[in-house]
Structures are given as structure tokens and as C-alpha cells.
TrEMBL record:
Residues 37-182 form the Lipocalin/cytosolic fatty-acid binding domain. Belongs to the calycin superfamily. Lipocalin family. Pfam families: Lipocalin_2 (PF08212). Keywords: Lipoprotein, Palmitate, Signal. One of its GO terms (biological process) is response to stress. The lineage of its organism: Bacteria, Pseudomonadati, Verrucomicrobiota, Verrucomicrobiia, Verrucomicrobiales. Residues 1-23 form the signal peptide. Gene3D superfamilies: 2.40.128.20. This is Apolipoprotein D and lipocalin family protein. CDD domains: lipocalin_Blc-like. A lipid is attached at C22 (N-palmitoyl cysteine).
Length: 183
């Protein structure tokens, strides 16, 4: 696949900036994902329990995701954010498994302006922990800048949320900044 030279230059600069910005931070071993994900079981409705702050979600909002299995084994992704005033914002995209990851690392691309952002070859959605019954999933990015706890039920017990927050901290995520789903 041919890419535009300017895109290659920008992607290279962003990669360099990321490496430089991480150079002074505490180093952690590379993130491990779960060994395997059954995408048919992973498909369905998820509620965000907590996340690290990011530029594309409002701090006081709650989010839900609907993953629908497509015939090619990719997932249609529909994320819906409900803001404190009741307004909703929806983003639609597609998640495809990274080759050799047994579906534990996904490359998610959204439609619209978000489609211009490159999705890393190693994926931008890593499933780090997954409950055996697929009732909860800890998802993050390998640079540890993005993190979500997703569950099948709207509100998890505090002890369960804490267990996943503790695991995220152990993995090197800055859990002091976590934003929890409003109850």
C-alpha cells in the first residue's frame, strides 16, 4: 500500500516525539495482553466503568459501546457518550484484529475526522485483562496513555473496579488520574 510522503513524515515525527517524551518516564516492561479473545463472545454491549482522561471524551460524561461482529470477524464499533446535560455524542468505527495477536490487540479506526488519525500497526486497543465470562475487560494502549475498564453491567461493585485499577497501576498506568463512571 502506497502512502503519501507527507503522511509518512508526520507519522515518523509523531513516533519520534512519543519516544522522546517517554524517555524520561519510569520504564515498564512491554504490556502483555490476554492470550486469546473470542470476538463472537466479546461482541455486545459494554459500559465504561473508568478511563484515563483523553481529548475525545468529556470528563463528566459516561460512555457505552456496542460491538457488532461482522462477517469478516472484525467488529463494528459504536461508542455513545452521554454528557451531564443529557446530550449524546456518537462515534462509529471498525476494529480489526492485529495479525498474530489472537484477537487480543485490535486496530480501531473511526469515521469522519477521526479517520485521519493513524492507527498504530501494533494496534490501539489492547485487551489487557478479560474476565473468564467476558463480563469485564481492561483495555489500554501500549504507550499507557489510554485506559478503560469496560463491563457488561452499568455499575460494577467498587471492589471489582478497585481490583482492575490496582492491576492497571501494576502495569504502569497512572491511575491517580482515573475518571469513574457516575453512579
Amino acid at each position: 500500500m502506497n502512502s503519501h510522503p507527507l503522511f509518512s513524515l508526520v507519522a515518523g515525527l509523531l513516533s519520534t516525539l512519543l519516544m522522546v517524551s517517554c524517555a524520561g518516564s519510569k520504564s515498564y516492561p512491554p504490556l502483555a495482553t490476554v492470550p486469546e479473545v473470542n470476538v463472537q463472545r466479546y461482541a455486545g454491549h459494554w459500559y465504561e466503568q473508568f478511563r484515563l482522561p483523553n481529548s475525545f471524551q468529556k470528563d463528566g460524561a459516561s460512555a457505552e459501546a456496542q460491538y457488532t461482529l461482522l462477517p469478516d470477524q472484525s467488529l463494528r464499533v459504536v461508542n455513545t457518550e452521554t454528557r451531564a446535560d443529557g446530550r449524546q455524542k456518537t462515534a462509529t468505527g471498525r476494529a480489526t484484529a492485529v495479525s498474530g495477536s489472537s484477537n487480543a490487540r485490535l486496530r480501531v479506526k473511526f469515521e469522519g475526522l477521526a479517520s485521519l488519525a493513524p492507527a498504530a500497526e501494533e494496534g490501539n486497543y489492547w485487551i489487557l485483562q478479560l474476565a473468564p465470562d467476558y463480563s469485564a475487560a481492561l483495555v489500554g494502549t501500549p504507550d499507557r496513555n489510554y485506559l478503560w475498564l469496560l463491563s457488561r453491567q452499568a455499575n460494577l461493585p467498587d471492589s471489582t473496579r478497585q481490583k482492575y485499577a490496582d492491576e492497571a497501576r501494576r502495569l504502569g498506568f497512572n491511575t491517580t488520574r482515573l475518571l469513574y463512571r457516575p453512579r
